[in-house]
Amino acid sequence: MIIKAFVIGHPINHSRSPLIHGNWLAQHAIAGSYEAIDVAPADLPAFFQRLRSGEFAGGNVTIPHKEAVFALCDSIDPLATTIGAVNTLVVNNGQVHGTNTDYLGFLGNLDAGAPGWDRAGRAAIVMGAGGAARAILVALKSRNIPVHLLNRTRSTADKLAREIGGAITAGALGDFNALAPGAGLVVNTTSIGMHGTRFKDLALDHLPDDALVTDIVYVPLVTPLLADARARGLRTVDGLGMLLHQAVPGFSAWFGVRPDVTPALRATIEAALEH
What we know:
Elements: E1 3-9, H1 17-27, E2 32-38, H2 44-52, E3 58-61, E4 75-76, H3 78-83, E5 88-92, E6 95-99, H4 102-113, E7 123-127, H5 131-142, E8 147-151, H6 154-164, E9 168-172, H7 176-179, E10 183-188, E11 192-195, E12 212-215, H8 224-231, E13 235-237, H9 240-246, H10 248-255, H11 263-273
Parallel strand pairs: 1-2, 1-3, 4-6, 7-8, 7-10, 8-9, 10-12, 12-13
Antiparallel strand pairs: 3-5, 5-6
């Protein structure tokens, strides 16, 4: 019997997930399939009926459905509730369970790209307080790392810091230069870096020499922020690894094999990003 999985979104043709999971299916010689399915928002309830019928073992959820599926799942992982988004569905006995693997993807990417990054004992600076920041904050909280959450609109950062809880201090983007000397990690969760955009007036030279800079944007692979950090001699980790590592728990749940994020897989996805 072929085990079927999917990614749903609207639109969906941009998704790299079929390439990632297809690579793993072939590598492990699994009789399975992973397909991209365009599901309009109005058709989401009908798609969940297909799920409950046993057609699929589960799948991924991307824009614009990550919040909408909350009302349709039979159970939801508490961390997904905190993050406010579901990106992975697992079907068991006609019940659909929702979870979020983005925080695992973030941690897995840094653990692989900069081993020991969380042992410095310094605070992290997280830039941006939108939906993408939530999973990052949950991830850092799980490693007991204090966070300065900086956002263009300070009140948005205040609200998010209260919702996630823990050692999170809200501030404005303009606070970066004053906080930089005590930071061991800088994370960009905003869309700045895409389409040639860049941060203005970030004094990366104020950061400690062993600080790590990462960006969740992966198109382009080397954002202006990462390029500036490298020029300063700082360690960097790009955003592509987060996409690869967040896919691991879902594949494991659906197909019963825990796959590895290998250099060959990364090279395959990098090549696809160039087209």
